[in-house]
Amino acid sequence: MLQSEFNHVGTMRYQPHESRYARESLQRFMEHIKYLPTTPISLVGEAVDVINRAAIPGEYLVEFLPFLHWVPDWMPGAGWKRMAKEWKKIANEMIEETYMRAKKSTTTIILTVDICRNEGSGRCQTFNTEEQEQVIKETTATLYAGTRRGYDSLGPIHVFLAMLLYPETQARAQAELDEVLGRSRLPDFGNDEYELPYVKAIVLEALRWMPVTPLGSSHKEEYKGYRIPAGSIVFANTWSILHDAAVFTDPEVFKPERWLHKVCPGRHLAVSSLWIAAAPILSVFNITEEVGYDGKEVEPRMEYNSALICHPKQFKCSIKPRFPEAEDLIRASINEY
């Protein structure tokens, strides 16, 4: 279902919305505006935080002593069971709330409703109404969760951190942007993506350098004749794969050049969203180290959490317009959408 909606063609209809949001974000940077999350976004964030805590292997005693599954909730040591019930409630609220709000909306493109209404492939016709709705709810919930705590939100943060740590990379990207665009317009989807290969390489390198999910999900599998039985926990070590020195020279170094001669991986939602977020920012802003009260630059530190969804700890930086006309360019670009 998601494959048919979010292939390189399907994602193109969302690009005007992504472009508008990217330009509005530029103005919020200038005005230091931070929006508080609305109810559905808060629910999604809370649900993903729950998944992040629940999915860590070995975190709870019941994983080692399965018979604890049968103990009553009120017994000492069964706190995990009470938490699990509360977490299930949060997850269900997220699934239902996002779906019902999307279904009632008539003013914007909503991913949930778009999938429901797309009967061209015949997929919707293979379910009865109740089953169809449940499949759509659960399928699109994974997408909303991914954008709330995944590539769409963490990807730009990784780009910011990389630009702080590797200013020469930022300078090269900005030189490419100035050469292709001048300083009269902002980058957008279409030809700009292909005429700005170094900026695209920064996006791909950010996804490799700091993968949002360092480990894959658990499931039954047979590998080279070895059957991995049900109940086993096997994680694909995404971090090690993307930091294999035999494949990536100097894997710990942020090096966009490694992607310049690769075959284009296609424009799916995560990469295109990160590109349209990163390219305009690099076009009009300089991302530099913050200057402390003592007049010295505050060096950023690469500190990450160790949860299922990997994100950097808070770091400070300075975001300033690159040239005097940048502010006028940002305000004018918003009117285009």
Describe this protein's structure.
The structure is a single chain. The protein has 337 residues and is mainly alpha-helical. It has two domains: 117 residues, no CATH class; 188 residues, Cytochrome P450 (Cytochrome p450), CATH 1.10.630. The chain has 13 helices and six strands. Strand 4 and strand 5 form a beta hairpin. About 6% of the residues have low confidence. Pfam families: p450.
CATH topology of the largest domain: the name is Cytochrome p450
CATH architecture of the largest domain: Orthogonal Bundle
Mean pLDDT: 77
Q: Which structural category do the helix and sheet elements fall into? A: mainly alpha
* Integer tally of domains: 2
CATH class categorisation of the largest domain: Mainly Alpha
Whole-Å distance between the termini? 29 Å
Q: Considering the protein shown, what is the CATH homologous superfamily of the largest domain? A: Cytochrome P450
Q: Give the biggest beta sheet.
A: 2 strands, antiparallel
Summarize the structure.
The protein has 337 residues and is mainly α.
Which helices and strands, and how do they pair?
Elements: H1 2-5, H2 15-31, H3 39-54, H4 79-104, H5 111-117, H6 129-149, H7 151-165, H8 167-181, H9 191-195, H10 197-209, E1 221-223, E2 226-228, H11 238-242, H12 269-284, E3 285-288, E4 290-291, E5 297-298, E6 318-321, H13 326-334
Antiparallel strand pairs: 1-2, 3-6, 4-5
